[in-house]
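Minimal example, chain plus nicotinamide-adenine-dinucleotide.
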Amino acid sequence: MTKKIAVLPGDGIGPEIVAEAVKVLEQLRKEGLDISLDYGLVGGAAYDETGTPLPGATLDLAKSADAILLGAVGGYKWESLDISVRPEKGLLGLRSELNLFANLRPALLYPQLAGASTLKPEVVAGLDLMIVRELTGGIYFGQPRGIRTLDNGEKQGYNTLVYRESEIKRIGKVAFDIAGKRQGRVCSVDKANVLECTELWRETMTELAQDYPHVDLSHMYVDNAAMQLVRAPKQFDVMVTTNMFGDILSDCASMLTGSIGMLPSASLDENSKGMYEPIHGSAPDIAGENIANPLATILSAAMMLRYTLDQAEMADRIEKAVSQVLDDGLRTADIHSEGTTKVSTSAMGDAVVAAL
Ligand code: NAD
């Protein structure tokens, strides 16, 4: 049966990088991949057109699709809008409406790019870690929240960190299952020494570990985890953590690999329906210049084939094609170094299609 893919390019470099991932999917469609592609508006582009960053039509499209391919949202133009209609709300709305609670963020260092990392090659060479971030709970969604005026007239901002046991278990299971197919190690990251909510997180992960005798569980405070990620990142296999800690740690992990432009992500619901997107934002500073790195988005399409469309072989082919173009010395500006060939966004996409 034809699998429906909702394509949401979004803002900034979003349309440019999504176009390259679509080129790759179109090539696979010619070879028999049974998919349909339907486009929708999200983020600032949707706000400009409809007055909301997540129009009903886009939500319906996303709900009826088997998978969603998203570029990025946001940009200078919309920064002064009320927070309720900022582009990022479109993304948060999609994640929560579709119940995409599990965010998988691999940080894999292609050996060809070991020199692109700001860390010493021996610290990062061979790095292959997976951060599993809880995506629909925690402080980004907790109530009450807001900015209030106190009796003395001073303003106070407040947010709430909340997790139910069932939410912790659900994300924990995803992490343990993935670790079972990798090196069998989960490091759960919390701040249990200060935050009661993550004390419960730690207790629940420890209980869950009983069901996974073949997976080793360790715990780490988030401050130490940030330090260990840059000190000795290869000690990690799978890290599982809360929404906000995962947001920060995964960006940190991305830099171990040299460029934020190389890293894909998947956000899954309980039935493996997923939204796939690069981990970076809309990069308004380079939008429209045809210089953005499309590989994170192309690798997101590979994750889509692997996790939602059950096409592991095609996913492998895309990942190998990306490795091939790097072997051939092709680099977008963000990963370019002496002795390699600088190419545009579209030339990089063409090269991946050719290498397929
Ligand atoms: P960003 O990730 O957009 O950019 C950070 C830096 O990395 C910039 O210098 C940018 O040029 C560079 N960069 C990012 N992606 C790149 C790529 N594919 N190729 C080459 N260089 C790349 O983060 P930011 O500047 O903090 O945010 C810009 C906008 O994106 C903001 O509006 C923010 O809210 C939004 N944002 C959206 C998402 C998302 O849609 N998932 C995630 C993060 C930020």
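Residues 13, 17, 72-75, 88, 91, 260-261, 277, 280-286, 292-293, 296, 334 surround nicotinamide-adenine-dinucleotide (CB under 6 Å). Residues 101 and 170 are 8 Å apart (CA to CA).
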